[in-house]
Specification:
Helix content is 78%, strand content 0%. The longest helix is centred in the first third of the chain and has 77 residues, at 2-78. By secondary structure, it is an all-alpha fold. The radius of gyration is 40 Å and the shape is elongated.
């Protein structure tokens, strides 16, 4: 009986040791898991903070640029005379309603049939109205194409003419290059207009369409138009 008792005590002691080892092992695992989770949370927190800082930096830069632009505009306005401010107001109003070239806007503002500002005030307004002259030329080109038929060169001439819109050659060329016109179809429309006014032979129609005093279409465009109209 004593021997048997001793065996039982020994077995119980062994189980106690295993329980302690198991508990230590589990505790260690929990600690490691906790550390890993903490590390993960810490990493996510840093990433979120960096994102927030980057966003705040971008907003600050944007606000800085806007403030700089407003400061520049305010500085220019502060140095302007009362009549220059009025000329600038009129210039912006014109630009909002229809396309103008730089010189065309000055002429409109200073014309005796227009606003009658001095040349100096009108020039100040054109210099400071913030217009994109290429964009103005493109808008004018699109307007011309809606009301009439133009060749590539004819449109450039109209836009840059001193009797037309008075854009620079570069601005007019930009507009003709970017207006999206189908020059063959423009030639057809021009040819139809001529035929509606009177009788034309194929050769006379082509001559009219290609003439330097006429529409200034290319030979190929004029022939295409004559073909489409059955001449």
């Amino acid at each position: 009986m004593k021997k048997s008792k001793g065996i039982i005590v020994g077995v119980l002691a062994a189980f106690a040791v295993l329980a302690v080892v198991s508990s230590a092992s589990t505790g260690g695992s929990k600690n490691k898991t906790t550390e890993t989770v903490k590390g993960s949370v810490s990493s996510e927190t840093v990433t979120a903070e960096e994102t927030t800082k980057l966003s705040e930096k971008t907003e600050t830069q944007t606000e800085s640029k806007e403030t700089e632009a407003e400061t520049t505009e305010a500085a220019a306005d502060a140095g302007a005379t009362a009549s220059q401010k009025q000329a600038l107001r009129a210039a912006k109003s014109y630009i909002d309603k229809m396309p103008f070239s730089y010189q065309g806007l000055i002429d409109q503002l200073s014309s005796q049939y227009g606003n009658k500002f001095s040349e100096e005030d009108a020039t100040y307004a054109a210099d400071n109205c913030g217009a994109d002259w290429n964009a103005e030329a493109l808008e004018a080109a699109e307007s011309y194409l809606q009301t009439g038929s133009f060749s590539y060169q004819g449109l450039i001439d109209q836009l840059s003419s001193e009797y037309g819109s008075k854009f620079t050659e570069e601005e007019a060329t930009y507009a003709a290059d970017n207006c999206g016109a189908d020059w063959n179809e423009e030639a057809v429309e021009a040819a139809k207009s001529y035929l509606d006014m009177g009788g034309f032979s194929r050769d006379s129609l082509i001559d009219q369409l290609t003439s330097s005093y006429g529409n200034k279409f290319t030979q190929e465009q004029a022939e295409y138009a004559a073909d489409q109209l059955g001449l």
